[in-house]
Amino acid sequence: MYEPSEHRPTQVIVDLNAIQHNIQYVQTKMSEEQLLYVTVKADAYGHGAIPVAKAAIEAGAKGLLVATVDEAIELRQNGFSQIPILVLGLTDPRGIAEILHYNITITVSSHEFFARAYEQLVATNQLNLLDVYVLNVHLALDTGMGRIGLRSVEEVREFALEIQQYAWVNWQGVFTHFATAGGGPEAYVEKQFDRWKTLIEAVPESVTYRHYANTAMAIWHHHLQPKSDIVRLGISMYGMDPKDERDNIETATNLQPVMQLISEIMHTKQVGAGESISYGAQYTTTESEWVATVPIGYADGWLRRYHVIDVLVAGHRCPVVGVINMDQMMIKLPHNLPVGTTVTLIGKDGKFENHVSDMARQLDTISYEIFCNISRRVPRIYLKD
Fold first, then answer.
1. I need a labelling partner for 8 at 20 to 30 A (CA). Which of 120, 163, 258, 297 fits?
2. Which letter does DSSP use for residue 194 in this model?
3. What is the pLDDT of residue 180?
4. Is 197 a catalytic residue?
């Protein structure tokens, strides 16, 4: 169980058992030779990178995926000294010394990175690092995402030729990312996969890993051949369908939501008809109402546009009244309720549930964004058997 913060009752509850359950489900879609890497970038989508990474490794993850070198260093400094950590975004060659020192695997999109990194080591008198460390890299291929990566067979062949002059570089992997596997035209998945198969023909056999399977590809396209050597598990580790669909029987049955977001009623008052609530006086009562103040606001990641999302209190759906403040918001109660009553913003209360996928559709966004918006000042409480 968890204990509320003694200073403020607003908190995120992260069920690490659900993390492991969701990993085990995705593993049923994998073949024995595939490796599972889990995505813990953006502080594990707001869930907490360190505890989530530990739980994931216990469940069989063989690598960690982040977006930045700083995220990778944080993991290395918190006990993850041996497991592979791959930075999926491009990195600044000025950080080459730390990349080498912390044994971080990076993504590259051209061979120019190596020359610039070498120049940086020369300029900072750290060339001796190349006597000790090897730089592991994965080459990004752009098969249709339009973000980073080489796009033609000729470019890949040139990269394969140029990298040979850098003995301190190990070309460990090559990967691509599918733009529509988690939503969009299925035909585009096939188009990207055809491009992928063409491009990897130019990749030398000495390159160990060829991977393309994000969460959606792992769940719905695991039949494709050749298989992805690495499965990069993201949003479904956190219990969400990649398309934020709630009527998909397979994901609805097998994935368990990981996060709850709760707070408490801190103050109540009964106001008469004609009284205005919150900034701008945008909400005015039409009758006598019980109004409660809840200590959460947009600085916590509960954004002003979330005013359309009812919260759950004592088995009731309670609407937000007035605009959401930086640190507080007001809700309409069905009747007077005591201070200290739990307010559920994400999660279940009785027969009701605020599921993040439902919220995402209502807000015209995706579950990733809702999770990542929850700020670090909201304490994370971890549950684990």
1. 258
2. H
3. 82
4. no
Q: Provide the token pair at 204.
A: 């030398």
Measured between alpha carbons, how far is 63 from 72 in angstroms, rounded to an integer?
A: 11
Task: Tell me which residue range forms the domain holding 234.
Answer: 16-246
Q: Which of 197, 269, 279, 384 is catalytic?
A: 279
Q: Counting beta carbons within 10 angstroms of the beta carbon of residue 347, is it exposed (0 to 12), middle (13 to 18) or buried (19 or more)? A: buried
CA angle, residues 47, 72, 165, in degrees to nearest 5: 150
Residues 147, 139 contacting (CB under 8 angstroms): no
Residue 304 has pLDDT above 80, yes or no: yes
The count of structural domains within the chain is 2
Kindly name the residue from 25, 29, 37, 41 that is annotated as catalytic: 41
pLDDT for the residue 5: 64
Is 298 known to be catalytic?
no
At residue 50, what are phi and psi to the nearest 5 degrees? -65, -55
User: Are 210 and 115 in the same domain?
Assistant: yes
For residue 29, the domain's CATH number is 3.20.20.10
Share of the chain above pLDDT 70, in %: 99
Condensed to tens digits (0 to 9), the pLDDT of residues 197-216 reads: 999 999 999 999 999 999 99
Between CA 167 and CA 162 the distance in angstroms is 11
Other Cβ atoms less than 10 A from the Cβ of 301: the count is: 22
